[in-house]
From TrEMBL:
GO BP annotation list: protein O-linked glycosylation
Pathway annotation from the record: Protein modification; protein glycosylation
Protein name according to UniProt: O-GlcNAc transferase C-terminal domain-containing protein
InterPro entries to which the protein is assigned, alphabetical: OGT, OGT/SEC/SPY_C
Amino acid sequence: MLSVLLSIVRAWDSRHKQSKFFAAPPDRLRPLTKTIDRIGAGLPETGLVFCSFNQLLKLNPAQLDLWCRLLCETPGSLLWMVDPDSEDARANLSREIEQRGVSLERLIFAPRLKQDEHLARLALADIALDSFPYTSHTTASDALWVGVPLLTRIGTTFVSRVAASLLHAHGFDELVAEDDEEYFEKVRALVLSPDRRADLRQRLESARLNSPLFDTPRFTKNLEALFIAMWEQHGRDTGSREPIIIQNLGGNPYPSNLQSSRLSRNMSLACSPVASRGFYRGSPQNSEFKALQGMPNAVTARFLTRTKGRPDANLYLDWTLVAAYDPLLNATATKQWN
C-alpha cells in the first residue's frame, strides 16, 4: 500500500518524500449515471443541506459543537448523516444534537445504499462537513467526485491530513482550515454566498477528470516512476542488499504466491486492488499480510491485533510493515514507531 511505499522512500532517500501519492488513490470509473430528487432521497424540498457521511466513530463533542453552531446560525438548514444502523447510536446522537439547541426535525439519517445510488443522492448536498481529527478518506473523495464542496481541517497526524491532501491534489486548498474558528468561518462564508457555492460546484465538476486527484493513468505512471527511482537508488548502494524486483505492477499476488515475490519481502504491493479497502480484520488484505508474516525475518505485524474502527488502528501501519518485512530498515522503522 502507498503509505508503506512512502515510508520506505522516506527511509531510503528524503528527497522523495514530497512525491504526490495517496494511500487510497480515487477511482475515476465510479458511476455517475443515476439521478434522484430531494424527496426521493428523504430530504425536504427546501433548506440548505449540510452533510457528513463519515462513520460516527469519527465524531466528538467539539465537532458537534461546531456543526450545531452552524445549524443554529443557518435557519432552515439540515444535517444529513449516514444511518449508524444502531438504535442506541441514533438515540445518543439525537440526544447530543438536541442538547445543543437543534430540533431533531433538522437531523436526517441516510440509509446505506449501493455506490451508484449513494453518489446520486450525495450530489444533492450543498456543503460537506468534515470530521476532525479523524478526517474523511473515501467519504471526501466521494463528495469531490460528485461536485460537493468539502470543508476540512488539517492536523499533524496521518488521519487528520487525508482530506486536506485530497483537496490540495484537486486544487481546492481554499476549503482547508487551520483551526476550528477558520473552519467555521469558511463554512459560514459559503452559507452566505449561494453564488460562490454554485461557482465551487461548477469548478469541482469541471476538475473531475482534469485534476491529479482522479487521474488514474497519471497516478499509475507516477507510481511506476517512483518504483524506478527506488530501484536506481538501490543500485547506488554499496552495501549488500537483496535486489528489489517489481513484479506485475497491475496484478495482485496475494496470498498464495506471495512467497515468489521478492519485493513482498519488503512491503505489501502498493498496487494491490484491495489497498483501498484498508486493514480491517478479515479483509483480503489481512490475508496478504498474514501470508507475509510467514516469511524469513518477519516479525509480528502489530496492526493485526488492533481493534477495527479505532482512530489509531492504522497508526502507523506503514512503519509497522517496514519493521516487519525489511530487516535492513528495522532500526529506523522501530525508532519512528516508538
